[in-house]
Amino acid sequence: MKSNEEVVREAYRLAEGNVLDGDGFRALFTENGAFNDMPNSLTFRGDQIPLALTGFASVFPDVHRELLEVHALGDVVAVELRIQGTHLGGFPTAVGEIPPTGNRIDVPTADLWYLRDGKIERFNCYNAANVLLAQIGANPDFNSAIEASKAAGTGA
Question: What range(s) does the SnoaL-like domain occupy (predicted)?
C-alpha cells in the first residue's frame, strides 16, 4: 500500500493541467470523501470531485501546483504550495464571467489532506482567493460595498 504522502503526491500529479485525470483523482478518495474549497465555501463529494479539477482547468488550462513543503503526520498530510497557471478561460462569478486576461497566477495555498486506510477522506484547500482575483485583474470594489452600506443605513 502507498504511504499517505505518496497518495497525496499522486493526487497533485493527476490534477496537473498536462495530465488532468479527474476520474483517477476521484479514485483516490473514499466513497464519501470530500474536497472542500475553503475560501469559496464549496464542497465537492463523490462524482462532483472531478468537476472541481475540470472547472479550474477550464479557466487555467496550464495549471501547475508547485509543492514547497510536504509534511506527513500520521493520517494527515499538510502541504504548502503555489497554484500557478495562465488565465485563458472565462472565470465564473455570481454576477457573470470574467473574460480571459492572459494573466499569470501564482497563488499561495495551504492544503490539508485527511486519509484513512490509504484513501482520502477529506481534502481542505485554503488558497489565497484574493491574490488569485487580483492577479487576473478582479480587485474588490470597496466603493460599492461602502455605498451599499450607506444606502442601507448601516454605514457612516
Answer: 21-122
